[in-house]
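Today's session is about reading a structure prediction critically. Students often jump straight to the picture, but the first step is always the sequence itself: look for stretches that repeat, for charged clusters, for runs of hydrophobic residues. Only then move on to the predicted structure, which in these notes is written as discrete structure tokens rather than atom positions. Here is the chain we will use throughout the hour.
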Amino acid sequence: MPFQRDGAVNGSLESQGKSRKFLEGMEAEQRCATSSKRKSVQIPSDREQYERIEMTVRRMVQNFASHRTSSPNELRRIEKEWLDGLSHRDCKLLHAMNPWAGGLWSSLLAKAFDELAPDEPAWAVTVLDKDWDLAVGNYSTVAPADVKLIVDKMRKRLFEAFRGMSYLFMVDVSVERKAGAKNNDRLLSLHLHGVVWGDRKEVSARKRYFAGGHYGAPALRTKTMSDRDGWLAYACRDQRLGNYWWKAPNGESYGRRNEPIYSGSRLHLLRMFRNVTKPDLCLTSGTGQKIRRHALGVAKERGYLSPE
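Below is the predicted structure for this chain, in token form.
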């Protein structure tokens, strides 16, 4: 089984009202590129996201059954294995695709910040590098091993770029579709959101270590962290909307709008993050490492278990 169980969730999740407002604001900002004539794409709630995951897994199992003879018990077992760790009661296991795990992990990080963060400037930083992208489609797929290779690359590059500085980053992924794409071709664009401590100019200067994203996206963006808890919640969230890109009439820039993530892309994400947890996607150094260690200790007290 991908995840172990050891009873009901210990305690309840704390209120995430402030973080939720921040997330809604960030997602609204992402939707601003959508045409006013086009109905805006709604972000699925935690429950709706889980229902979409259930639907994707059932379709996968049905497809599996259509290609080989399987007993009903075997099909139920396969479905249960893929859903294990993804329900609300299993959020303590911090599965990367669990809709409730991001809020729990970000709250643990926020508490650790209160106890361990130094009295020096901290900046909200996003890092993009197209060398970290993974291509998927009808004839290609991904696996946890692919994620591990990219995460190892990220870890080494962060260490080189921010040598001597403290940081805490979360690995995020966006599902990118370009106009005219065939065979359900998508890019799974892995990137980083997090916190770096130090002088802002010095932090911004580290952009030279990263290649930048597709469609002209900058390599590194630094912002004032006005809402720390909200930024951590944003960095730890699971992906629920995709991006659709097209070339602008001038032929130089690109337009973008949000679109739903459909079952095919969601299945790629489930495969990619199988047995991967939020702590696995947390890359740190210095103070950030202390914060992660503290948050992980509390998570283990509440029932977190590393995947088998």
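Discussion point for the tutorial: The longest helix spans residues 46-67.
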